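Suppose a classmate hands you a notebook page containing two proteins, each written out with its sequence and a corresponding row of structure tokens. How would you begin to make sense of it? This section walks through that situation. The first entry is reproduced here exactly as it would appear on such a page.
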Amino acid sequence: MPNRPVQEHHGDKPTTDHDYFERMSRVILASGLNWRTLEKKWPGIKQAFANFEIERVARFEEPEIEALMANPDVIRNLPKIRAIVANAAEFQAIAREHGSFAHYLAELRRSGGEAGLRDAVSKRFAFLGKGNTVMYLFSVGEDLPEATKEWEAHHDV
């Protein structure tokens, strides 16, 4: 179903907001790339993005963004980099609003089911269209039977 960097985490629910954020960033960076490229670069990417520490990434400004764009160890895609920084700020807001990202996802699912969960996450976070949102939710162990049915119907499985 999804590409390998996401599959390797399926069913393995993150335990911290940091883990949720890192996986979201991974899905964003993987978009449109060969998974081997991302795997090869991942150690350098993690280091360049302050190990995906939400508080640090949320404070990235133009000098840090320019440094990322100049760093050959990083996927140098400005919209993706800006999305990751913006999403770190969203993670901070969610922690204030809901206590944790896991609570946020649970509240979305309770109030809107799978479709509501997918739509809300897609709308709130940068660079998470419908497909990337499904990949992300799948990577963090969310059960997505409707998305699985849609994918299977589209791919004649």
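The notebook's second entry, a different protein, reads as follows.
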Amino acid sequence: MQQKFLLTLLAAMLAVSACGGTEAATPAISAEDIAATAVAEAWVLLTQTAAAMPTETPAPTATFTPQPTETAQVVPTLELLPTLPPAPVDVVATPTSECNQIPVPEPKGQLVNVEFYNTSGGSANLSFGMNSPNDKGECFTIPSPKMR
């Protein structure tokens, strides 16, 4: 059954393909049209390139600015009161924070585990430190790696 169907389909396809036209198909665009289009595109590119070139800007013209004339100035002299020397000011330099130090390998104080979870979706830099020394005299700042 299938063989008869395939043979019938093949015969129909051959019959339809044999019914071709007698005239040769003509191209829609001639060679002259293609050449004219190429020349027009070349001229467009040349025009756009010339339009994109910087133009020479003329130098600004000099404007006449008159110089000031010398005039005699009378400066009144005033008798000023004596000035006092500036008062001495004690400048106290603030020392570097004692808590801004790298921790020692074996701290003396109590150890506490702390976990931070970054749920923002971005990266974060975090430092964990002490504001004042503990009862053992330790005071450290611990930087952490970038959290993701």
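A careful reader of the second entry would note: The mean pLDDT is 75.
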